[in-house]
Specification:
- This protein is of the alpha/beta class and 365 residues long.
- It has 2 domains: 174 residues, P-loop containing nucleotide triphosphate hydrolases (Rossmann fold, 3-Layer(aba) Sandwich), CATH 3.40.50.300; 183 residues, Up-down Bundle (Glutathione S-transferase Yfyf (Class Pi), Chain A, domain 2), CATH 1.20.1050.90.
- The chain is built from 10 helices and 15 strands.
- It has a 6-stranded antiparallel sheet with strand order 2-1-4-5-6-7, covered by helices on one side. The chain has a 6-stranded mixed sheet with strand order 8-12-13-3-14-15, sandwiched between helices. It has a 3-stranded antiparallel sheet with strand order 9-10-11.
- Strand 14 and strand 15 form a beta hairpin.
- It is globular.
- The structure holds adenosine-5'-triphosphate and magnesium ion.
Length: 365
């Protein structure tokens, strides 16, 4: 999978700009606040349909403009794909794939695959379980539409169950009505858990090898899904339904659903130590990078092609040895990386960015 060309119109600080990317390493170089991250943000939007930085689409439109457009040409399995996203001040965004408007966001999933990594992704290791669930959800939604739709449905039913827990006045009435929600929640919750278990099984294998590679065998990384761990979807469903039924009284007292995949996590252990609480900053950063690079391998093993790797300001966070190891690892896939300075003797295409204007400065063969 490769990005061939990106055109931005009135997107953030880009009035009208077209960038042609090459295979391999593409480096976007510029001082702070010139528009490097804006480009990665636009590309990643074409993979997941929304910004990783802001919730409101209108924040992406150039100030004082009415609408904005992102147009991305890519290749997947040697087929060209053109994705266009139109953003408006006062109406919902519109998306077209090869000129045909999509009706549901699920149609975009998997059309163009990318992985985005920025220093803030340290949160993936350091912060609450929500970050790790988001990590799984973003990847699995891109990898499988069934997952995306199950997740949408799960969130909807969960909100309805929570509303019921808050608005029902007594436990007896609740017991009469809640079983239908428990059944539906267990049904799509089991699908989500099954996909996540398979995902973490792959992730742990790849991340273990990558952590070894990045740390020269000094750090052993182990991952474990914390939640219901059963072999089949049926068994997971049965267990989840059982837990939901058992937790009705507790959930009623608290006013929200206390069991299910929306509460699960991935436990991250390095050399026997829970890295979230006891890891050094450097260990946590390297772990986050191993997880991100493991994503690349998962995509490759599931869809038979590497996604585009977007690395935002990641090199400056690593020591020289790890920088070199990282560049060596990714040299054969298309990656687009941003930095303020780049002095490595590697094959790459370089662009310089000044105040929303981009210029090709070097292409090495
Ligand atoms: N909606 C918008 N309209 C116009 N300009 C915007 C909009 N949103 C953000 N900007 C501007 O875009 C500029 C570049 O942002 P970006 O985050 O891409 O910078 P960067 O090059 O990645 O910088 P850094 O090295 O600090 O990460 C900022 O100066 C910001 O003010
Ligand atoms: Mg930036």
């Amino acid at each position: 999978m490769e990005v061939k060309q990106l055109t931005l119109s009135n997107f953030r600080n880009y009035k009208n700009e077209t960038i042609k990317f090459n295979s391999g390493l593409n480096v976007l170089i510029g001082n702070n606040a010139q528009g490097k991250t804006n480009i990665l943000e636009a590309i990643f939007m074409c993979a997941i349909g929304k910004s990783v930085r802001v919730k409101k689409d209108k924040d992406l439109i150039m100030w004082d403009k009415e609408f904005s457009k992102i147009s991305l040409s890519s290749t997947k399995s040697n087929f060209s794909k053109n994705i266009e996203i139109y953003l408006f001040q006062n109406q919902n965004k519109a998306i077209k794939i090869n000129g045909v408007p999509i009706k549901k966001m699920g149609q975009l999933m998997g059309e163009f695959n990318a992985i985005y990594f920025c220093p803030d992704d340290l949160k993936l290791v350091k912060e609450s379980p929500e970050e790790r669930r988001r990590f799984m959800d973003i990847d699995l939604s891109q990898l499988n539409k069934i997952y995306f739709y199950a997740l949408m449905k799960y969130n909807k039913i969960l909100a309805q169950r929570n509303k019921l827990l808050k608005t029902t006045s007594n436990l007896k009435t609740l017991n009469d009505t809640i079983s239908i929600w428990n059944e539906q929640l267990a049904e799509c919750g089991a699908t989500i858990i099954k996909y996540r278990l398979d995902f973490v099984n792959l992730l742990k294998k790849f991340a273990f090898d990558l952590q070894n590679y990045l740390t020269e065998n000094k750090e052993k990384l182990e991952l474990e899904y914390t939640g219901i761990v059963c072999e089949s979807v049926e068994e997971i469903k049965k267990e989840l339904l059982n837990q939901l039924n058992k937790s009705v009284e507790k959930d009623f007292d608290l006013g929200y659903t206390t069991v299910g995949p929306h509460r699960d996590d991935i436990k991250i252990v390095v050399n026997g130590i829970d890295i979230r609480h006891f890891g050094s900053q450097g260990q946590q950063r390297t772990c986050a990078l191993s997880l991100k690079l493991a994503e690349l391998e998962i995509f490759n093993s599931v869809i038979g092609e590497y996604p585009v790797l977007l690395l935002d300001d990641v090199l400056s966070e690593l020591d020289l040895n790890r920088q070199n190891r990282l560049l060596n690892k990714i040299k054969d896939i298309q990656s687009i990386i941003t930095c303020t300075d780049f002095n490595f003797d590697v094959k790459c295409t370089k662009f310089s960015i000044v105040n929303g204007n981009l210029e090709l400065t070097l292409k090495t063969d």
